[in-house]
Design a protein that fits this description.
The chain has 10 helices and 6 strands; from the N terminus they run H-E-H-E-H-E-H-H-E-H-E-E-H-H-H-H. With about 230 residues, the chain is an alpha/beta fold. A 6-stranded mixed beta sheet has the order 3-2-1-4-6-5, with helices on both faces. The termini are far apart. The chain has one domain: Rossmann fold (3-Layer(aba) Sandwich). The longest helix has 14 residues.
Length: about 230
Amino acid sequence: MDRATGIIAEIASRSDEAILFHSASGKDSIALLDLMAPHFRRVVCVYMYIVKDLQHINRYIRYAKQRYPNVEFVQVPHFARYNYLKTGYMGCECDPKQRQKTLAQITDAVRGRYGIEWAFFGFKKADGLNRRVMLQRYDKEAICEKSHKCYPLSSYKNGDVLAYIDQKGLIRPERYGKGASSGTDISDPEYLAFLRDNFPGDLQKVFREFPMTERILFEYAYANDENQ
């Protein structure tokens, strides 16, 4: 991870504080926080939630705060949540007047709240074509001077990130289903099944806010029983 470390050090030479948009249980966030923590006096991690205060997410947050004394977490609504509330997605309480927010707007709001200029993200070119095209435009394919955003993991593959986590003995990312390492898609039956089998209290929180997800899990369980 020498390339990522060099990119982080370059930004740290300009500021001793940074914002990190952190998925809590995802491999990229776990690795990136470990890389950043030694370089900054203060790192404010932003977890964007679909459903707030889930037990399996909070345990990752507790782990990070215990491991890195210069790290703090703030939880804010995910930009998708604003659209869900506006449209009544999955049976949630509908508010047609709900204003929408983009990731850029959320980033600016966090910057204003904490007075921190640089924001870091775990995006990689390997994540997909759109990410690749976006990142290739930046200095070192990682630093956007105009928006003061940084993507130190841009050139790495998923296997590189997992190898770093294993090498450093970091907490393993959550596995919700086939290859998924973070869960914000409440319509994904494998995510719901993971909660059912491991964190039933979290599942009930999802059901209460998005009642139609219960039907998704029921149909998924029925289909699996039929195929056995």
